[in-house]
Amino acid sequence: MTQTTFPLTRPVPAVLAVVVRAGEVLLVRRANPPDQGLWGFPGGRMEMGESHLDAALRELDEETGIRADAPRLITVLDFIEHDSAGRLAHHFAMISVLCRWRAGEGEAADDALEAQWFDRAALTALGPGASAKVEYLADLALAIADAA
User: Burial, 116: exposed, middle or buried (Cβ in 10 Å; 0-12, 13-18, 19+)?
Assistant: First the structure.
């Protein structure tokens, strides 16, 4: 994903691709801000004319090489950050999409430093090394996957 600066006149729509496989979720360690160095779900900004479902599958493939299908909406979260002077630094409307794993183990590419599968205990162990809401989204995704 190419870093692009947008004027902060409105929230930026972006996606998170949440993949569950055998009770584990796929996370990447982010190479770029925001959340540089933290573990989170693959994702990024939507492209003009692209649906949120297509964007999630594209970002997943670009960042990890994972092939998935059957995307479905989990939830939408606002990530709002201010700088040290109190000015708005980022406002992303993150559209979380559950994607059904089809192929691939997950290799870090594009703006991911690492890619790894985590079970629930390993997610908790990440603590502050994970982006905000990672455990929350993982719990939602695992519950949906278990119900399917």
Answer: middle
| Dihedral pair phi/psi, residue 128, rounded to 5° | -70, 0
Amino acid at 131: S
Sign of the Cα torsion 24, 62, 137, 39 reads positive
| 9 Cβ contact partners less than 8 Å away, ≥ 6 residues apart | none
Q: Give CA–CA dist 121/79, Å, rounded.
A: 25
Tell me the two tokens of residue 92.
């992303």
d(CA 129, CA 126) in angstroms, rounded, equals 5
Residue range 83-115, pLDDT digits in tens: 999 999 889 999 999 999 999 999 999 889 999
Q: How far apart are CA 87 and CA 72, in angstroms?
A: 34
pTM: 0.90
CATH of domain 22-147: 3.90.79.10
| Torsional class of 139: left (φ above 0), alpha (ψ -120 to 50), beta (otherwise) | alpha
Domain ranges for the chain: 22-147
d(CA 114, CA 69): 22
